Amino acid sequence: MKVILFGATGMVGQGVLRECLRDPRVENVLAIGRAGTGQHREKLREIVQADVANLSAIEGEISGYDACFFCLGVSSVGMKEEDYRRVTYDLTLSVARRLAGPGMTFVYVSGTGTDSSERGRSMWARVKGETENALLGLPFRAAYMLRPGYIQPLDGIAPKTRWVRVAHAALAPFYPILKALFPKYVTTTRQVACAMIQVAAHSVARSEDAPTRVLENDDINQVHCSG
Questions:
Q1: Between β-strands 67-70 and 44-48, what pairing exists: parallel, antiparallel or unpaired?
Q2: With CB atoms 3.0 to 4.6 Å apart as the test, which of 12, 14, 141, 182 could cross-link to 71 if both were Cys?
Q3: E-only strand ranges, 8-56
Q4: Is-contact 47 56, C-beta < 8 A?
């Protein structure tokens, strides 16, 4: 399958790109972002542009793809709701509406605790819930929402934000303990990437949905990863 990847330089996106390049089911990867990945691989092509939501200028270059892995996102810490919504909802839906169609599978990285009712007290959870609901209502072949909890970066991947990078480095030695104590709320960049590729490949190959369109952290961990 041929995939479009948004957010390839972020922590999750780096993991997804790595697994896409390794997985023989992925023929080509088109990474679209504000910065380049710095990688040069035969099946990777990149488009770098300041406004990733504006796909009109590259309309002819985004056709013929089977799946989109959307890994763009920001932490809501210290953000006002309107600013968080602009990045989380507006940006995502701008891209999704442009790509929506019966030949496209859309896989979105959300988060544990997302509020599908859109009425809860947590700002970030409401906005994520609204985003998920809107994506599920678009005319894709299939759309999948992944809700990981704590994600441990592997394979030399590091978060871009300094305080997040420091936090993950501090917790890294305790990851086996966290996994043992809280298996339903802990995962890795490798496992999230594997789950994204697996649900997309299922949809593309069979033209039907996987058993669930919303995968919680435990569902993500249940997906078998090869290699």
A1: unpaired
A2: 12
A3: 28-33, 44-48
A4: no
Q: Do residues 173 and 102 lie in contact, with contact meaning Cβ atoms separated by under 8 Å?
A: no
Q: What is the pTM of this model?
A: 0.92
Q: Which of 89, 91, 93, 94 is nearest to 118 (CA)?
A: 89
- Backbone φ and ψ for 166, nearest 5 degrees, come out as -65, -45
**What is the spatial distance between Cα 152 and Cα 158, in angstroms, rounded to a whole number?**
9
Q: CA 68 from chain center: how many Å?
A: 9
| CA 77 vs CA 8, 48, 89: distances in Å | 22, 27, 16
Instruction: Taking residues 17-24, report their average pLDDT.
Output: 97
Q: How far is the C-alpha of 111 from the C-alpha of 216, rounded, in Å?
A: 8
With cut-offs at 50, 70 and 90, classify the pLDDT of residue 182.
confident
Of 19, 3, 198, 13, the residue nearest 104 (C-alpha): 3
Confidence of residue 179 (pLDDT cuts 50, 70, 90): confident
For residue 224, the model assigns a pLDDT of 81
Q: What is the mean pLDDT of the chain?
A: 90
In the predicted structure, residue 69 carries a pLDDT above the cut 80: yes
Cα–Cα distance measured from residue 165 to residue 159, given in angstroms and rounded to the nearest whole number: 5
For residue 151, CA distances in Å to 103, 125, 219 come to 30, 17, 14
Residue 226 pLDDT greater than 90, yes or no: no
The answer to whether the beta carbons of residues 217 and 147 sit under 8 Å apart is yes
